[in-house]
Amino acid sequence: MSLLSQAQTTLWEPGDITEAGVEGLLGDLKSRQADFGELFFQTRVAETWVLENGIIKEGSYGVNTGVGIRSVSGEKTGFAYADEITMSALTSATEAARSIARTGGDGVVQAWKRTEAPLRYGNQNPIRELTEEVKIGLLRDADRVARAQDARIKEVTVSLAASHDVCLVAATDGTLAADMRPMIRMNVSVIAEDNRGRQNGSSGTGGRRSLTWLLEDGRVSGLAEDAARVALVNLDAIEAPAGAMPVVLGPGWCGVLLHEAVGHGLEGDFNRKGSSTYAGRMGAKVASEHCTIVDDGTLADRRGSLNIDDEGSPTQENVLIEHGILKGYMQDKLNARLMGVPCTGNGRREAYSCLPMPRMTNTFMRAGDYAPEEIIASVSKGIYAASFGGGSVDITSGQFVFAATEAYLIEDGKIGRPIKGATLIGNGPDVMTRVSMVGDDEALDPGVGVCGKNGQGLPVGVGQPTCKVDELTVGGTQA
Amino acid sequence: MSMRDMQAREGELTETVSQILAEARKQGADGAEVGVSESVGLEVAVRKGELETVEFNQDRGFGITVYVGSRKGYASTSDNGTEAIENTVKAAVNIATYTQDDDCNGLADPELMATSVVDLGLYHPWDVEVDAAEAIAATCEAAALDVDGRIENSDGAEVSTSRGCTVYGNSHGFVGAYSGTVHAIQAIVIARDDKGMQRDYWYTMSRQSDLLEAAEAVGQRAGERTVARLGASKIETGEMPVLFAPEVASGLIGHLVGAISGGAIYRKASYLVDHVGEKVASDHISLVENPFIPGGYASRCFDGDGVATSAKPFVKAGVLESYVLSTYSARKLGMTSTGNAGGVHNLLVEGRTRTVEELLSEMGDGLLVTSLMGQGVNIVNGDYSRGASGFRVKNGQIDHAVDEVTVAANMKDLFNNIVGIGDDVDVRGSIQAPSILVASMTVGGS
């Protein structure tokens, strides 16, 4: 059965919704002066288990179902949603959404174009793949392994989350498409304690995968070992330096730098409105020639991947910056139409109750030529950042920050003592021109990223090879 | 279209609570607690004088916690129908068959339940139509754009209103309802000079629409803040006094509240474990909770466990009087709940206040921070390091705009180095803070 017919069974059958009924509602949206109308149906089930203090302490299960309806007229958007999928709820939400357009329209809805995009992940519901006993066993394994690492590991918290999202988009441009999206995530966080104090360490992994993936290749033990290692490293950490200095960023998760310094600034809405520091700079040099940065929603099983975006457009590989030259923005339907460019499959929304916007999927920097050791050896005095917590950006000034959670001094080309967590701050276009070396060790993050924009959180991927920024401000306490 | 009266929903939602609790009993739960809520809202945004978005919000749902023996399970749904109730309770009970016994689980002791739930004046619906909201937003944006010729772009102005009702009940027989409204007006504009673009915003928020600041005033403040950022530059790395403006000081106090929260303490995930009775901040500040402020943003007669709230200090002249405790975290620590399941209910920063001019003058040379970025706060070890922008102060006077710098310190030192607080409290949140002057922090720049 196609994803579309499975989604129709799940979302439409309980409320006796038919294609003809949906077509009628889209016609109602178009009967006002609207360029575009859309219905987004969704149901999401999510389950979480938490181990704390050596016991399985909490579990939760939740279901969220509804439909979001929008009407777009020029730059104006009317939006309403309902938390039940019945004709009467759909009709009143349609009425509210279309009130944005005040004059009569043609009522014409294009014939359905059923989109069947290539599949980038399985469509199974991961919650049902393993029994509760097996899931709980994974948490216990992680707890045991983490505690076995060192007597200084005092507290261990493990969580396992799985969810399944079924969504269906029907729009006046003929879009009729569906997706079924699994998501899993496991996290281990520990606290280590010795006579110098307490430090934390955490490690996580996940993606649009089967839960059985966690049973393979010692993944659970790997997470526990890594979380314990980071906490123990941080027990030895000295005060971080403050001021401008060379910074080497490790492979994978450090790609959060690109997400903040470049990614958000290249989202279509900010560029249409001229509010991004990158606005109007297409074709200009915005980064050093070592930088080629792409956003790619098609990668197999990745956390940021999608078969179709939340407007029904298939995802694709979008080159944002090629050898330092700005090549493309990320677009949803609204901003693509208003800017007169093709949609890039980046229209995403947190849930049916939120409006879609241009968003990132998996954003990463392509490999360069240098060996990672060579990059570190080139720095006489600076820092090496192995892992980060979150970051954020002011897309207008270009100022961005990200917080290192595992970092070391580099002295005379060698990695030295670990340093305490510190925020790094820079200006996106400025910092990107100072990327002077890019490693050959391209890597994506382990699958834990959450991106926030206008209050909507979404799963994303980031990645990069080891790379060197000649000067970045490090926010330690040692002036 | 007009919005439903949510206060009138209290009766029906109270019945839904009883129905869910009865279902939990039927399915074998020894104890249960449930929260049912419904809300509706309207958001109208204008950009460059034109209507941009109209969003109608309506949300509902419930979450149930069941206890089977001393095991716990939780489930939630966006559907309040009878079938959804059965399925959701079943899911919660199923979870409780796999979680483990924990003596600290269970409802709060019956004698701690709130006995009087009085009207705290939280519900003041604003029947603003889309056209009227559009006009208010347009006025707000126009006032912002009007401040200075260099304000050349806008991210829009928005008017929002919401109203909701939540009913909490548990198997002790406690049931409490509260309805509330929140209204806001905000504007974000963008200015440009030869150094580049800057953005800033301002907003007003209240439970009562007639207590909102005037749209023009909000726009004007947004415009003034934006223009003031133009020409910002980094400053040299060094140690200096830092004055946190009220709009960022509440976040700072929030980190201290995080570090004295029961959840962080029993997990040993705070630098303030075993600190009751000790100095955690300078004697210039006290942190006092008042859950009963009429129309207060976080006013409540009972907490998320049904426990009666109370007015009390958490920090008195710098000394930690009590952790911020829910029923569970209190039991884990062998203490009594402070009625703070779900957080603090209007936390006020008290002490001898001074005007901002006096604080600037006392600071002499330093950094005034009006905006903070990023998540570089670790309450486990107290490390604090965030991106900042604001103004360089010299001889007590604002000298020039600053951005792309960091401010860092260990939280222990940071709070003990507070040397003064302002009289300019920001009342727009559950933590209401004034300007806070810290004697010394490390500023990272060029």
Textual characterization of the structure:
The complex is a heterodimer of chains A (479) and B (446). Chain A is α+β, with helices and mostly antiparallel strands. Chain A folds into 2 domains: 3-235, 2-Layer Sandwich (PmbA/TldD fold), CATH 3.30.2290; 242-475, no CATH class. Chain A is built from 10 helices and 22 strands. In chain A, α2 packs parallel to α3 (87-98) and α4 packs parallel to α5. The model of chain A has no long low-confidence stretch (mean pLDDT 95). A 6-stranded antiparallel β-sheet of chain B has the order 3-2-1-4-5-6. A 5-stranded mixed barrel of chain B has the order 7-13-15-16-19. In chain B, strands 10-9-8-11-18 form a 5-stranded mixed β-sheet, with helices on one face. Chain B starts with 9 loop residues before the first helix and ends with a strand. Chain B is globular, with a radius of gyration of 24 Å. The model of chain B has no long low-confidence stretch (mean pLDDT 96). At the A-B interface, β2, β3, α3, α4 and β5 of A face β2, β3, α2, β6 and β15 of B.
Task: Count helical runs of chain A.
Answer: 10
Taking all residues together, what is the mean pLDDT of chain B? 96
Estimated helix fraction of chain B: 10-25%
Largest interface, with counts of residues having CB < 8 Å to the other chain, equals: A-B, 79 and 80 residues
Order of helices and strands of chain B: HEEEHHEEEHEHHEEEHEEHEEEEHEEE
Query: Approximately what portion of the residues of chain B adopt beta-strand conformation?
Result: 35-45%
Low-confidence stretches of chain A: none
- What integer value in Å does the Rg of chain B equal? 24 Å
CATH architecture of the largest domain in chain B: 2-Layer Sandwich
Q: What's the number of domains of chain B?
A: 2
Q: Strand percentage of chain A, roughly? A: 35-45%
| C-alpha termini separation of chain A | 63 Å
The CATH class name of the largest domain in chain B reads Alpha Beta
Spatial arrangement of strands, main beta sheet of chain B: 3-2-1-4-5-6
Q: What's the β-strand tally of chain B?
A: 19
